[in-house]
């Protein structure tokens, strides 16, 4: 991973993991995000919440990495939820229709609460 991006697992218990991303999510960093997220899924944390609050930039490579992670979570009978999504990324999710597959919440706490309720109610 380079200095402009970091993924920190804040919580990993049972089949749920919460990871915080920070920095730029782009062509050079997207492969590391994908690899680390797939590692979490491979270790049994098939439900992922990615907190994007500290992501300063996301290009199409980063967007594609999120879609690839979602697909892998689905294959493991899991889910991917996003928290604190920037306006630009939220708009891209909406335009592509992926906001129906990748629920976005205002905070990581809200995403975790929705997971524990067993649904996606309250997604924004």
TrEMBL record:
Annotated STAS domain residues: 15-115
InterPro entries linked to this entry: Anti-sigma_ant, STAS_dom, STAS_dom_sf
Residues forming coiled coils: none
PROSITE patterns for this protein: STAS
SUPFAM superfamilies reported for this sequence: SpoIIaa-like
Protein name per the record: Anti-sigma factor antagonist
Recorded family membership: Belongs to the anti-sigma-factor antagonist family.
